[in-house]
Write a structure and sequence with these properties.
The chain has 80 residues and is α+β, with helices and mostly antiparallel strands. The protein is built from three helices and three strands, in the order αβββαα.
Length: 80
């Protein structure tokens, strides 16, 4: 196996730095090939929904927040 070139190492370093930024807790949004919007940074895999689905979810935001608070004792929370 040959040693990687300087350019290959530089590209790999940039890739690793980009991954490190994603894990810092920031959310990143992207439009996919099929027109869905993906949110990166919530977990291991992105969450992808279409426009209408995002609007429905956002419209139900307060209801979802209330539901989460009401059921907090049943939910697995970070650090438990």
């Amino acid at each position: 196996m040959s040693e990687p070139t300087y350019e290959e190492l530089k590209a790999r370093l940039a890739e690793l730095e980009k991954q490190g930024q994603r894990r810092s807790g920031t959310l990143e949004f992207r439009v996919g090939e099929k027109g869905g919007v993906s949110v990166y940074g919530l977990g291991r895999f992105p969450v992808t929904l279409y426009y209408e689905q995002w609007i429905r979810l956002l419209d139900a935001g307060e209801k979802l927040r209330e539901f989460l608070e009401e059921n907090k004792s049943k939910l697995k929370l970070k650090g438990q």
